[in-house]
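Collaborator request, handled under Task 6.
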Amino acid sequence: MKKILDKIRVGSRASPLAKAQMNIFLKALLNKFGEKIENKIEVRFYKTSGDKFLNKNISEIGNKGLFTKEIDEAQLRAEIDIGVHSLKDLPTNLPEGLIIAAVLPRGDCRDVIYSKNYKNLNNLKKKAIIGTSSIRRAIQLKHLRPDLVVKEIRGNVETRIKKIKDGKYDAIILAAAGLKRLGIKKNFFEIDTKKIVPAIGQGVIAIVADKKNKKIINILREINDEDTFVESECEREYLKALDGSCQTPIGGMARIKNVKGKKHFFFRYMASSLDGKNFVKNKTYFKMSEFRFESLNLGKKIRKKIGLGKL
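C-alpha cells returned to the collaborator:
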C-alpha cells in the first residue's frame, strides 16, 4: 500500500454492539497499516430505521435494510467512505453502487440461550416464555419445543438482558458473537447448529464501500478474510433464491471442509413458511468450483417446498 488517503470516513449504527464491531474493524486496519492510517480515520454513528421502531415486529415494518438504510444513504451521498455492518443485517441486493468489499474473520455463528435458570433448550420448563426478535429462531424453537411460549422482544442486547433480570422472560435467544463482542460472559449457553440453524452471515462483520472508490477497496482487500468471504457468498446465494427479507424464516451456515482430500462447502440450512407448516431443515455439500450455482439452485428448490412459488 503506497499511499493512504488523507481522510477515511467510516460509519455504522450507534448501538453498543455496532460500536464494539467498529472497534474490531479499526483494530484490523491498525494492525495492517499501523500509524500511517490511525490519524486519518473519522468515525460516524447513525440511528437506523430498525432502531427507531422498537414497538413493532421486524417482520411487520420492512426488509433487511432496516438496520443499514441510513448508513447506505450516507455512503451514496459521499458523506462516508465505508459502512461497517453485521452481515446478517444486509439485504441480498445492496443499493446500486455499493458492494461488500471485505469481511472480517467470522466470530461464533451459533445462537445462544440466555437465562438465569436454564442451561439448554431441553430443560426449559413447559410453557416457559422465550423472547426473540427473529422469526427464524421462533419457527425452529416451535419445532423443537412446541410447548414453549415464544414472544417478540426488541431492543439492544443490554435491554433484552434486563428483561430477563426483571423476570419478564424465562430465557431469550441471542447471537453468540454479539454477546462475546460485548464482553458478556455469564448466563448464556451455545445452541448446537443442528438444533437451530444460524442466520445467513451470522457472526460476520461486513465492510461496504462504493464500487467506484478503488482506493478504499484496495485498502479493505488487505484486511479481507478470504475463507469467510466465500462462505458468506455461499450462504447469500441460497438467501437470494428464497426471499432475503425479514419476512421469511431462513437459516444457513457454510463451511469449507476437506472431503477425501478435496475442498468442499459443507452447508447446513433451513427454511419455512411463515406459519411453520412447510418446514425444511437439512445439510448438504457443494463443489468449490460450483458453489454459487449449487447454493442458488438449492434455494430455488426449497422455495418451492415451502410454498413461495417461483422467483
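The cover message to the collaborator said: "Residues 120 and 254 are 24 Å apart (CA to CA). The chain has three domains: 8-104+204-224, 111-190, 235-305. Please let us know whether this matches your experimental observations."
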